[in-house]
Amino acid sequence: MRTIKLPFGKLAKYLGVILLLSVCITACSKKDSLVPAGNEAGNQAAAVAAAKATEQSAPAAASKEASDLGLTVLADDSRNGHRNIVEIASSNSNFTALVAAVVKTGLAGALSDPTASLTVFAPTNGAFSALPAPFNNAQNISGISDPAQVDFLRNVLLYHVLAAEVFSNQIASGRSSAGTIKPVGTSNDNTVYISKTFGLIRLNGRSTVILPNIKASNGVIHVINKVLLFPTKNIAEIAIADPANFSSLVAALVKTDLAGVFLGAGDFTVFAPTNAAFAKLPAPFNNAANIAAISNPAEIAALSNILRYHVTGSRYFNWDLGILSRVTTLADGSQNKLTTILGYNTGWVKGNGNNNFSQTNPGDILATNGVLQVIGDVLIP
Q1: N or C: which end of the chain has fewer CB within 10 A?
Q2: Residue 180's Cα: distance from chain center in Å?
Q3: Which residue range forms the structural domain that includes residue 165?
């Protein structure tokens, strides 16, 4: 693992009255199995080059994916005739799992309604195959008998449907969101988050529209390559459920009275440092036990500001991060911006006091109150 050396002056400024002034802050050189793969610091030139390469390749790759599946024939409106959404899906072998799910959940009638005007994000069979059984193919879906599984599948399908017809050219570039027809369960669990960059549309950070604008008699279909799964946990719950990676972060949130913020409603992005990231800091900020034992008010206040420097007041998926964009955080002071670089599956972020960029990997973890981007370094203002 590559590591970074943090400028001690800036760290001391923001960590307050750290007693270990004689300690030179160095990065841990030992590879830690707890760090998600790929969380290695990267320099700006390499990250920018990767982003620009993605800018050129991602839209073409999405089109090629659709072409390789034989889906482009559906883009010909004259061939679709006056067929409704279900009829179009049933006519193409790429949607056997989707059609089986529609039939199993009793939604065929609603999606065939001639008076409707709907938008359906339609996952391919390949998208369903990434799900666990029994949701992974048409045969297994048709065999589902557990009412709870049928109900879950129904909500998943409804999470793919908008109650109005929306074509891709009606979706603004940048970040937006849309309410689906899924009944609301928990906060924001029926909202789909849309990222449109370089003309390519991604949903919830992980699913790509590979073929947009298939016109049906009762709406429009956009083909996607990942099934959209609505969030069920908030940011704090996700972190608490993964102590192997986030026990230090959770301890810091509790110590600074910020845990409650991420248990409630909201719309945040959290660049979440792993335990290995905290281990690069000097005591008492280097692990959960030491953080929990902090009693110095100045250290707690400084830790709070450091944590808030990892949080933005809206959702940023990797596809939203721009190229050397400056993103405002919730930290105090004028030095409260991060520098970000987009990526298709992973992005890059750097604090003012960091020498190198940290990769977001894994990234785009959707929560009811925001999104987590896991990083391998603590960001320094």
Answers
A1: N
A2: 18
A3: 69-224
Residue type present at position 180: T
Q: Structural domain tally of the chain? A: 2
Two tokens, residue 191: 């909202």
Per residue in 90-121, pLDDT (tens digit) is: 999 999 999 999 999 999 999 999 999 999 99
55 or 331, which is more confident? Answer: 331
On whether both 240 and 359 belong to a single domain, the answer is yes
Concatenating the DSSP letter of every residue in 123-152 gives E-HHHHHTSPTTSSSHHHHHT---HHHHHH
Alpha-carbon Rg of the chain, whole angstroms?
23
Angle between helices 8-15 and 297-308 (to 10 degrees): 110
> Which tokens in the block code for residue 157?
């399908």
The phi, psi pair for 191, rounded to 5°, reads -105, 135
pLDDT for 132 beyond 50 = yes
Q: How far apart are CA 161 and CA 180, in angstroms?
A: 5
**Residue labelled with tokens 């199993």:** 104
Q: How far is CA 202 from the centre of its chain?
A: 10
pLDDT for 117 equals: 97
The predicted pLDDT at position 81 comes to: 67
